[in-house]
Amino acid sequence: MKELVEVMAKALVEHPEEVVVTETTDGDATQVDLQVAPSDMGKVIGKQGRIAKAIRAVVKAAATRDDRRVNVSIMQEDA
Question: Which of 10, 22, 58, 65 is disulfide-compatible with 16, CB 3.0–4.6 A?
Answer without folding.
Answer: 10
